[in-house]
């Protein structure tokens, strides 16, 4: 069995309570989601280096232009593969 995602997620939000994409853009926004940088479908795991704290708005923006392929993997229009958490 994998480690409980809810606990890992909560710990990540505790450690990095601010949205990381917002910080890069000079905004300070509370993160509400935890995003997998490398999608689990591509072998990404729950390790701290693969997790990104993100706010709902940034998460939506990440997700908006995506389409879901028939194999269930979400890709952006430029072909970047991602996975919503
Ligand atoms: Zn954000």
List the topology elements.
Elements: H1 5-15, H2 20-24, E1 33-36, E2 51-54, H3 56-63, E3 67-68, E4 74-75, E5 81-82
Antiparallel strand pairs: 1-2, 3-4, 4-5
Structure report:
- With 85 residues, the protein is of the alpha+beta class.
- The chain has one domain (5-82).
- The chain is built from three helices and five strands.
- β4 and β5 form a beta hairpin.
- It is globular and about 35 Å long.
- 15% of the residues are buried.
- Bound molecules: zinc ion.
- Zinc ion (ZN) binds next to α2 and α3.
Keywords:
85 residues; alpha+beta; 3-stranded antiparallel beta sheet; globular; binds zinc ion
In brief:
With 85 residues, the chain is of the alpha+beta class.
């Amino acid at each position: 069995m994998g480690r409980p995602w809810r606990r890992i997620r909560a710990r990540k939000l505790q450690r990095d309570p601010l949205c990381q994409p917002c910080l890069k853009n000079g905004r300070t926004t509370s993160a509400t989601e935890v995003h997998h940088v490398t999608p689990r479908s591509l072998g990404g795991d729950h390790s701290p280096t693969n997790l990104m704290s993100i706010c709902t708005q940034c998460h939506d923006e990440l997700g908006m232009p995506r389409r879901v392929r028939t194999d269930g993997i979400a890709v952006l229009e430029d072909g970047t593969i991602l996975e919503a958490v």
